[in-house]
Amino acid sequence: MRTLNRHFHTLVGTNPLAWLHNQRVRRAQELLERTGLTVHTVAQHCGFSTASALRKHFRTTLGTSPDAYREPSPSTRLMADQLPVTAARGRVRAMG
Predict the structure, then answer these.
(1) What does residue 85 show for φ and ψ, rounded to 5 degrees?
(2) What is the pLDDT of residues 1-12, one digit of tens each?
(3) pTM to 2 decimal places
(4) 87 found inside a domain
(5) Can you say whether the dihedral through the CA atoms of 5, 9, 11, 17 is positive or negative?
(6) Is residue 9 part of a domain?
(7) How many domains is the chain partitioned into structurally?
């Protein structure tokens, strides 16, 4: 097992468990951005045993909670509100 950890660390730059947690947090980011799933459901989909475990690893990795990550900042909301939407398929087009 130590040999596997050593080789993994050499190739990836971290230990297998930290890599796995990072992959799960990245998947949680995607789900939080693209879906309206609850944090509990996102945790289940990403392989965390509980929503608390997801929150812990999310905060450790990204420095914020899943709920705060999902909330758009006021500046992001403002920018999105200012972009014109074309009639064809609701596409956003650049101003200018």
Answers:
(1) -110, 130
(2) 889 999 999 999
(3) 0.70
(4) no
(5) positive
(6) yes
(7) 1
